[in-house]
């Protein structure tokens, strides 16, 4: 564990050093985050213009869903896309050979090797939106915060496992990286409660691409309207999805043939 933490620290420090060479990009990304969040809020205002709830969710409750989505989206931007998005490149160029020689688990190393901190403003905005929405609903308390944190971490674990599993398909398929864009598009649907979608889409977002566990379930925990059946499903889905991703990675490494030899 100590060695893994040391590797994480080195990877974060190296990525931060690289990011600091482009400080203007941080400011530009902060402005883009504000504009994107503002556009999402305008859509919500339009949807609630007649004062009706959205699939049973009030305006302030949907703000928590949007905040949760913003947090998950920032984690994808800061870690998953820059790190796991390079797997196909490693395989295609043969640079994966050098990573295989490192005395550390390959999946872990690839998962934390590259960071981008342009998504940090988005993360802070998402946290602020969740806290504001919880306060507006009178749900800002230690118990709800703890429950939200647990379900949010489970949701992020699910999205990581899905992303890692799709990324490793590059060992077998050259254009496997395109599948990650489909997952990102599915994640974008998580900015609203899954209840607003037709039944068939709800089933997909719960059992196929379980976006419900990433945004809707943690948000429900934050405002005190959690379905304990879905909560249990999320807590089970996270370790199962992680275990599947580890299994797929092991199978992929066994079938890997060097592109540089």
UniProtKB/TrEMBL annotation:
Transmembrane segments: 27-47, 54-72, 115-133, 145-163, 199-222, 228-252
InterPro entries: ABC-2_transporter-like (IPR010390)
UniProt keywords, alphabetically: Membrane, Transmembrane, Transmembrane helix
Source organism, top-level taxon: Bacteria
This protein's record includes keyword GTP-binding: no
Name of the protein in question: ABC transporter permease
Organism in which the protein naturally occurs: Hypericibacter adhaerens
